[in-house]
Write a structure and sequence with these properties.
By secondary structure, this protein is an alpha+beta fold. It folds into 2 domains: 189 residues, no CATH class; 212 residues, no CATH class. The protein contains 14 helices and 13 strands. The strands form 2 sheets. Strands 1, 2, 3, 4, 5, 6, 7, 8, 11, 12 and 13 form an 11-stranded mixed β-sheet that branches.
Length: 416
């Protein structure tokens, strides 16, 4: 074992000596590996970052939920639709939970137009929503300070509110929002909690608005319906989130929800069923195409680097014929010559991979800065990139190594 380690150490030293002796040629050979590994690492980091960011964004919609949205219709179309349908309502939600066994819960929300929104310390242009108590759970929202309101507060028309973090900063710049009051139009509300900020990088996912909770203000749904003025002909709910029990795929449950609501709405096309899981799959397909394209570019760079390594090693074999002949003459085996040249190829690859890792990290953050994409790192990403780089280098180094080992010792010694 010690002898093998000693031989390997000697081979590495000889390889480094050869690389240092031909600095310019070595540097040009390294470029292919550097760019290839850099492209692989940047691509995987951006891809992993996009995946994690998508999961965070879809979390608010609920990957296993179904979402029903009231369609935004112009005045003329809305007048016609309202002759047959009252729009999305709480009764729709109750009917869905009673009729469809896989729907185990619901949460509704309604957006209100505000003309006055202030506290004793500041004002805000935040959006006001009336929501049912389960809305926070189905939207993966929790309180960073205080609490969210309860079901009994919704039933008793309690005048309470939960603020998003940005809304809390606008209305209470000195802090201490919980326990104070905020006035929405003509209605004073007691603040019981402030939401934890999820800090999403984007507010759009596959064309759908997500996030934005930090600039929202929430009050109980029944309180909003009873004490705030709604737009004429507006439906009772703007959005309805349905919790599924997991026994059915959301994409398979969506048609049943659509059929039931169509019957209840008199066949009017005044709602839309959204399947977050389907949006996630569309995003994954887009990410997959991006990964394939970037992998192809990185693979070409690595292949070019591998060809460069083969080229430099073939040139090295030609230059070192006498050295190889001398080694064979003093008892070196073919396997010793092959090992020496493969170690040299591996050393080139490892140096190129090291610089490639640095380039990949830099490139990933440059892409993130200019494109607004997220990046995420995993030790496996770096290990895979380095392993692929070394494998390609060794693969392209096999032929020159075998060529060197098969040289006739006598002819090799006479080459000079």
């Amino acid at each position: 074992m010690r002898q093998h380690l000693a031989n390997l150490t000697l081979d590495v030293r000889q390889a480094l000596g050869q690389l240092v002796h031909h600095r310019m040629r070595t540097a040009l050979t390294l470029l292919g590996m550097v760019f290839g590994v850099g492209a692989v690492i940047a691509m995987l980091a951006v891809s992993e970052g996009g995946k994690r960011q998508a999961l965070e964004m879809i979390e608010g919609m609920g990957l296993n939920n179904l979402i029903v949205e009231a369609r935004d219709l112009d005045r003329e179309a809305l007048n016609e639709v309202r002759k047959h349908s009252a729009g999305l309502s709480i009764r729709d939600a109750e009917s869905l939970t009673r009729t469809l066994p896989f729907v185990t819960g619901w949460a509704g929300s309604l957006r209100f137009r505000t003309w006055s929104l202030f506290s004793r310390e500041g004002s805000s242009r935040s959006t006001v929503f009336a929501v049912s108590p389960d809305y926070f759970e189905l939207s993966s929202l929790d309180a960073g300070m205080g609490r969210v309101f309860q079901a009994d507060e919704n039933r008793t028309f309690a005048q309470v509110a939960v603020l998003g973090s940005a809304a809390a900063r606008d209305l209470f710049p000195n802090g201490g929002a919980v326990g104070n009051q905020v006035k929405v139009n003509h209605l004073w509300l007691q603040i019981v909690g402030v939401l934890r900020d999820r800090q999403l990088a984007e507010n759009q996912f596959q064309g759908r608005e997500v996030g934005g909770e930090s600039s929202h203000i929430y009050l109980p749904l029944e309180t909003g319906l009873a004490r705030l003025k709604r737009e004429p002909l507006a439906s009772e709910l703007d959005e309805l989130k349905l919790r599924l029990d997991g026994s059915i795929d959301p994409a398979q449950g969506a048609p049943a929800v659509e059929q039931l609501l169509e019957r209840r709405h008199g066949g009017q096309n005044d709602f839309e069923v959204i399947v977050p899981a389907r949006l996630m799959e569309q995003h994954r397909k887009t990410q997959r195409i991006f990964a394939i394209v970037m992998s192809a570019v990185a693979g070409i760079s690595l292949l070019v680097g591998g060809i460069g390594i083969m080229n430099i090693m073939l040139a090295s074999v030609m230059e070192r014929k006498s050295e190889i002949g001398l080694l064979r003459a003093v008892g070196a085996k073919e396997t010793d010559i092959i090992r020496q040249f493969l170690v040299e190829a591996s050393v080139i690859a490892l140096i190129g991979a090291a610089f490639g890792v640095l380039l990949g990290v830099l490139l990933a953050y440059v892409i993130a800065a200019f494109a607004g994409w997220a990046v995420a790192w995993s030790i496996w990403v770096i290990l895979v990139a380095v392993l692929v780089c070394v494998s390609i280098a060794v693969g392209f180094g096999v032929y020159p190594a075998i060529s060197a080992a098969r040289l006739d010792p006598v002819l090799a010694l006479q080459s000079d």
